[in-house]
């Protein structure tokens, strides 16, 4: 009996040692994640000191390099998926019939993350500010939003993630919101919904080759420009799509799926040291073509880039977030700005809106703003805890100072606008979340010490001051 226990213990220890011992002959050098595996940590830092994070970094390095890592990940995913019908990766939802979904879209699908009426108003308000800024700069602006995969093809979602709380999606209201904000909107949801065939990949979070072409055509049609629609381009079907969700779940062993590839000429050329369409900052030029484009995009823009770049003499494609809209436009001088943002990230417009200098309001009278409602006292200069005013240099654009704060929710109606008055000048603010606000100020607008700052609430034509204080730098 003791001999059996010893053999069992020795066998267990041997199995545990195989991944470590095997690193000498078969280390893992490639993973399914879209990142470079960690490098072996140094005992010292760059300045020669002791690396106090060595053990944490070593743990990360070992977890990404131990022998047979990818094989173990694949077997675990197959067992959990095919036998138990669940996902071994928390970022991936294992659906029926081979469908995989991105877990971050679940709240949108179930309706648990729907924007409130106030948040939708804030979304429209912020888009209005961006559109007004673009109009003042003489730049065309276009917004487009790729739908989440399960917004279009939710019937393959697993039963345990199909208990829809609210069937409403902010995406459904976006055409109306954009119309009210005066923003041109390329409606990809309606385009995809009208098609009978599946235009997203089963094991990827993005559209397939045909879906990308149709999205490009929809966007360009909305710009009103002439363009090559590639309707007659020859197409080939092959097992070439290596899905992002596929890699996340099965590491490097996920099976590729069938996809359509269109043979279009690459008329553009890169003017940056570009390695792939995945790069965060890409500049292109196309001889013989006119017009200039800046496209703020996410990973859905990878398959759009070749089509879009072919249509413009100069183009800039950036994945930065938040968007340094003012700085990029001033540097690139585009005629057209396209913002492409996937549905699951729509809230970015009310959490980290584009960086532009706040607009001055000329239609607000100081007398109106200084009048409070009868019986209501304005906050004193020491009551900062209710409004949380903070000033700091933007970490994303050092040329901008951002002032942020919040208004007690009980003071706000659904469509209440928040303004800032700085030394007699009124500024429109971005509305953040439900009751926050933010302004970006360039050097000419930064308040000086001792000036008066007021928070103004505007309901229709009625304005009232709800907070004021003397301004000091570095609050």
Description:
There is one protein chain. With 475 residues, this protein is α+β, with helices and mostly antiparallel strands. It is built from 13 helices and 20 strands. The chain has helices spanning 2-21, 54-65, 69-83, 106-110, 117-137, 149-152, 170-181, 188-193, 209-223, 244-250, 301-310, 325-332, 366-370; strands at 92-94, 100-102, 140-144, 184-186, 235-241, 257-262, 269-270, 281-285, 292-296, 314-318, 336-340, 360-361, 390-393, 401-406, 417-422, 425-428, 430-432, 436-441, 452-459, 462-470. The strands form five sheets. The protein has a seven-stranded mixed sheet, with helices on both faces.
In this structure, how is the largest beta sheet organized?
7 strands, mixed
Q: Roughly how many Å is the radius of gyration?
A: 27 Å
Strand order of the largest sheet: 4-3-11-9-10-8-7
* % residues in beta strands: 15-25%
Q: Counting H and I runs of at least 4 residues, what is the number of helices?
A: 13
Distance N to C terminus: 73 Å
Roughly how much helix do the residues carry, as a percent range?
A: 25-40%
The dominant shape is: globular
Note poorly predicted spans. Answer: 366-384
Integer average pLDDT: 83
* DSSP strand tally: 20
Coarse structural class: alpha+beta
Q: Summed up, what is this model?
A:
The chain has 475 residues and is of the alpha+beta class.
Topology:
Elements: H1 2-21, H2 54-65, H3 69-83, E1 92-94, E2 100-102, H4 106-110, H5 117-137, E3 140-144, H6 149-152, H7 170-181, E4 184-186, H8 188-193, H9 209-223, E5 235-241, H10 244-250, E6 257-262, E7 269-270, E8 281-285, E9 292-296, H11 301-310, E10 314-318, H12 325-332, E11 336-340, E12 360-361, H13 366-370, E13 390-393, E14 401-406, E15 417-422, E16 425-428, E17 430-432, E18 436-441, E19 452-459, E20 462-470
Helix pairs in contact: 5-7, 9-11
């Amino acid at each position: 009996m003791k001999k059996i226990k010893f053999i069992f213990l020795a066998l267990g220890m041997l199995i545990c040692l195989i991944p470590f011992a095997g690193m000498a002959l078969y280390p893992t050098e490639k993973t399914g994640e879209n990142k470079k595996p960690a490098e072996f940590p140094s005992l010292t830092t760059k300045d020669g000191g002791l690396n106090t994070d060595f053990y944490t970094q070593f743990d990360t390095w070992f977890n990404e390099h131990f022998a047979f890592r990818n094989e173990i990940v694949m077997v675990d995913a197959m067992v959990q998926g095919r036998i138990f019908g669940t996902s071994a990766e928390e970022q991936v939802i294992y659906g029926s019939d081979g469908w995989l979904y991105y877990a971050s879209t679940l709240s949108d699908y179930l309706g648990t993350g729907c924007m409130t009426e106030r948040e939708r108003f804030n979304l429209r308000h912020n888009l209005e500010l961006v559109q007004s800024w673009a109009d003042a700069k003489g730049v065309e602006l276009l917004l487009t939003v790729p739908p989440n995969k399960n917004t279009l093809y939710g019937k393959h979602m697993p039963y345990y993630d199909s208990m829809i709380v609210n069937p409403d999606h902010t995406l459904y209201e976006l055409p109306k919101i954009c119309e009210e904000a005066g923003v041109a909107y390329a409606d990809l949801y309606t385009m995809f919904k009208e098609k009978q065939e599946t235009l997203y990949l089963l094991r990827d979070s993005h559209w397939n080759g045909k879906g990308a072409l149709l999205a490009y055509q929809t966007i360009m049609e909305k710009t009103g420009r002439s363009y090559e629609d590639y309707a007659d381009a020859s197409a080939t079907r092959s097992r070439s799509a290596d899905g992002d969700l596929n890699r996340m779940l099965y590491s490097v062993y996920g099976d590729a799926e069938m996809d359509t590839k269109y043979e279009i000429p690459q008329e553009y050329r890169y003017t940056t040291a570009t390695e792939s369409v995945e790069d965060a900052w890409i500049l292109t030029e196309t001889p013989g073509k006119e017009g200039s484009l800046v496209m703020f995009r996410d990973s859905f823009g990878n398959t759009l880039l070749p089509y879009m770049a072919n249509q413009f003499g100069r183009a800039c494609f950036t994945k930065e977030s938040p968007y340094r809209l003012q700085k990029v436009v001033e540097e690139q001088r585009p005629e057209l700005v396209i913002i492409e943002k996937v549905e699951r990230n729509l809230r970015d417009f009310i959490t980290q809106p584009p960086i532009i200098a706040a607009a001055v309001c000329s239609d607000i009278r100081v007398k109106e703003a200084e009048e409070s409602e009868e019986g209501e006292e304005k906050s004193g200069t020491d009551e900062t805890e209710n409004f949380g005013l903070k000033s700091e240099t933007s970490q994303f654009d050092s040329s901008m100072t951002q002032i942020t704060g919040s208004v007690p929710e009980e003071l706000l109606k659904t469509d209440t606008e928040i303004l800032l008055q700085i030394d007699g000048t009124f500024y429109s603010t971005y509305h953040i979340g439900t009751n926050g606000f933010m302004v970006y100020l360039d050097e000419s607008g930064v308040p000086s010490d001792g000036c008066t700052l007021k928070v103004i609430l505007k309901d229709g034509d009625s304005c009232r001051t709800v907070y004021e204080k003397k301004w000091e730098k570095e609050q």
